[in-house]
Amino acid sequence: xxxxxxxxxxxxxxxxxxxxxxxxxxxxxxxxxxxxxxxxxxxxxxxxxxxxxxxxxxxxxxxxxxxxxxxxxxxxxxxxxxxxxxxxxxxxxxxxxxxxxxxxxxxxxxxxxxxxxxxxxxxxxxxxxxxxxxxxxxxxxxxxxxxxxxxxxxxxxxxxxxxxxxxxxxxxx
Length: 173
Fold this sequence. Notes:
The chain is α+β, with helices and mostly antiparallel strands. It contains nine helices and four strands. Helices cover 57% and strands 12% of the residues. Strands 2-1-3-4 form a four-stranded mixed sheet, with helices on both faces. A hairpin with a 2-residue loop joins strand 3 (140-143) and strand 4. Helix 3 (58-70) packs antiparallel against helix 4 (74-82) and helix 3 (58-70) packs parallel to helix 6 (93-102). The two termini are 13 Å apart.
């Protein structure tokens, strides 16, 4: 442990089980932004997909989010799509490609990715893992092995996440 760079613990991870056609996930963005501002790169926010069957465009939106991640704009894309959740319900994949173009991403590549299904395995794996750990709705957060369900109520969740993150950071210091 003489090398200080290797002695530093990896940033705690907050898995954010999300669905891009979910109004509750749109509401959770304020908390996620606040956590990002408070911790910066000391807390890793990791997007996990849990498309719900009741939302017909959620699976395509999850794939599109993965393409945005591949193009280096994962969270900005997620925020942009969630801001237009009602429009996504009406317009589906056309909106997903349009948002990519608005963010300066390669919209043609989004279109191709949705057709060729290159990100389906990632979305399927996330969904399977979510089910295995008891995720039933979105948003759901997992930090330090603790599952926090924001689908029922998001009241107090950010504070709880901050308590856990602060403890993990203190332990890793």
